[in-house]
From TrEMBL:
Pfam families reported for this sequence: TPR_RNF123 (PF25576), U-box (PF04564)
Domain U-box stretches: 509-583
Protein name: RING-type E3 ubiquitin transferase
SMART domains per record: Ubox (SM00504)
GO function term, MF aspect, one: ubiquitin protein ligase activity
Keyword match Phosphoprotein: no
Principal cellular location given in the protein's record: cytoplasm
Keyword Zinc: yes
Length: 592
């Protein structure tokens, strides 16, 4: 009876003894793990009992917390349990997905508290493997706990969250994060871990900021230093405003830079999931409107819960995208990526359902009728990340342009005041910025919005929204509203220029070979499909390959690496565009 034992613990058993027993159980799991094949044969209830017992202790009376000096010194198994969950929540040898889900949910719950954030930061296994495993685990089964974990680690840097982007960078925590990352690499190289000779200096960088609280007690500090979990005390002393983690923010960025294929797959699933949650949110609103006043209050509450959950999940996914747009703009602005187009489509899908237009009517009615809790379902939470995303990418493009003009190779310049933290994301030298060679005029969030079929009144709504009424006083995001208005003005100007160009092209006779056979538009980057010999636009076939790995004409296997550029055809298309007549001449030709 694993779960029954866990219940007894919270009722008043010996917490220290029980926790020590669970520590030994965790060590036994690690020993079995080294045997490899033995792990699948461990009964699931062993791990269930371990997790349940830990949470029973955490919720007990008095609760077990890592801030208690006696327990920090006397129960070094906390790192062992954290290591077990971090190492195995993505372990394919665990055939029961509910066990993996329980581990992810446990991590998500713990990361709500700054004390436990310090524990994860001080744990070498968490620093080494948690972020890559989270990105790979974002799938149809585990995307909810994974997105919640990412949000908790990255909060505080978004539009309207007080920090305005990079508040922590100026506080010296960025240096601490970099130092801690170095410790993680050293720990991985040495193979050590907490309680296993993992090293005396672990966590010192994270603790550099604030030797306060119980750490001021010299006797307790000495006791903690004598234990295998001495690093726990140093990690908890570091400031973790709002439970965010600069260290893990740094590790997320570093992982995405180092593993572009993992990032691309993660973004693909993220876009798909955001579109799905917004669709489900709309369905939930419709159902809630239909049952309001016609059924029992319990039925209405059920639909309210679904509506609220889908809304909050959508906001969570948007915030994750906003963090990536802030720290890794090159992931969207790289000319070889479809990410910018898909990001733009997702943002417009959200705007269409929450601002103005026929799809936004349900949202308006829901807010006016107060059918959902207004403190949870409102416009500000879902629109703020969109404003942050477009501003982050627009500022990144400006820095890349300034670097190109100044000849500094992406390592300086920039827009200045809007990117207060400096660091990698402000320059580009560290890899999170955008190199001028990666960006072409079409790789612009402004150009993407202008060339889309979006209703420009939705962008006006974003600008004119009463942000000040929803942000705390002094929020630095309010200072970026002027740039947001300027951005929307540039989108309108670009829209007019693009429409004029399209009118000019359509007024001429377009050679058949210039037209994409799938979308029936003039191609920008034609490529030859080796299986069928057909020529299509590169973006068209890349989008097709996201869901089907075959040639759409011959059904033969096809990958992006097999595409052959049609260089001569592209040259002729570009020459045809350059020789386009002036608009007045085009109108005369069309009249004839």
């Amino acid at each position: 009876g694993g779960k029954g034992g866990a219940t007894d613990v919270s009722g008043g058993g010996d917490s220290d003894a029980t926790f020590t027993a669970r520590r030994e159980e965790s060590r036994r799991r690690r020993a079995l793990k080294k045997k490899g094949v033995l792990l699948p044969h461990i009964p699931a209830y062993h791990i269930e009992a371990l997790i349940d017992s830990f949470h029973a202790l955490r919720r007990g009376d008095p609760p077990f917390t890592p801030t208690a000096p006696a327990l920090a010194a006397g129960a070094p198994g906390l790192h062992t349990i954290v290591s077990l969950m971090v190492r195995h929540f993505a372990d394919v040898r665990i055939v029961n997905p509910d066990i993996r889900d329980a581990m992810l949910q446990s991590i998500s719950v713990l990361l709500q508290y700054k004390e436990y954030v310090g524990v994860f930061e001080a744990n070498p296994e968490a620093r080494r493997s948690m972020v890559p495993a989270l990105l790979k685990s974002f799938d149809s089964r585990f995307w909810i706990p994974v997105s919640n974990i990412l949000l908790r680690l990255c909060r505080g840097v978004g539009f309207g969250q007080g920090g305005g982007g990079r508040a922590w960078a100026s506080s010296g925590l960025a240096a601490a994060a970099a130092a801690a990352t170095g410790e993680a690499a050293a720990a991985a190289a040495g193979g050590g871990g907490p309680g296993e000779g993992g090293g005396e200096g672990e966590g010192e960088a994270a603790a550099a900021g604030n030797p306060s609280g119980w750490m001021e007690d010299r006797r307790d500090a000495a006791a903690a230093a004598a234990s295998p979990d001495a690093t726990l005390a140093r990690a908890i002393a570091a400031p973790h405003p709002d439970s965010a983690s600069p260290l893990f923010q740094h590790l997320i960025v570093d992982t995405c830079r180092s593993h572009p294929k993992v990032l691309a797959a993660f973004l693909d699933r993220l876009f798909n999931t955001l579109n799905w949650t917004i669709t489900e949110f709309s369905v939930a609103m419709k159902e809630m409107m239909d049952v309001a006043g016609r059924r029992a209050a319990s039925d209405t509450r059920q639909h309210q819960r679904k509506c609220t959950v889908m809304f909050e999940l959508s906001v969570t996914l948007e915030r994750v995208l906003e963090f990536l747009a802030l720290e890794i703009p090159a992931a969207f602005l790289n000319s070889d990526s479809l990410a910018l187009r898909r990001l733009t489509e997702s943002l417009l899908f959200v705007l269409g359902h929450t601002t103005v237009g026929p799809d936004a009517v349900l949202f308006d009615q829901t807010l006016k009728a107060q059918l959902a809790p207004l403190e949870k379902v409102a416009r500000a939470p879902i629109l703020a990340p969109i404003a942050g995303i477009v501003l982050n990418l627009d500022e990144a493009e400006e820095r890349a342009t300034a670097a190109s003009v100044g000849g500094v190779g992406g390592n300086g310049g920039g827009s200045g005041g809007d990117c207060s933290g400096g660091g990698d994301s402000c320059g580009g030298g560290g890899g999170s910025g955008v190199s001028p060679s990666q960006v072409r005029p079409s790789d612009s969030i402004c150009t993407e919005l202008a060339s889309s079929s979006c209703d420009l009144s939705q962008l006006d709504f974003l600008c004119d929204f009463e942000w000040a009424a929803h942000f705390t006083a002094g929020d630095v995001s309010l200072a970026r509203l002027g740039r947001l208005r300027d951005f929307v003005s540039r989108v309108k100007t670009a829209r007019a220029a693009i429409e004029l160009q399209r009118e000019t092209e359509y007024a001429r006779d377009i050679p058949e070979e210039f037209i994409d056979p799938i979308l029936q538009t003039v191609m920008n980057d034609p490529v030859v499909l080796p299986g069928s010999g057909q020529v299509v636009d590169r973006e068209t076939i890349k989008r097709h390959l996201l869901c089907d790995g075959t040639d759409p004409f011959s059904r033969s296997p096809l990958t992006e690496s097999m595409l052959r550029p049609a260089v001569d055809l592209r040259t002729r298309i570009e020459a045809w565009r350059e020789n386009a007549p002036e608009p007045a001449a085009a109108d005369d030709a069309a009249g004839k």
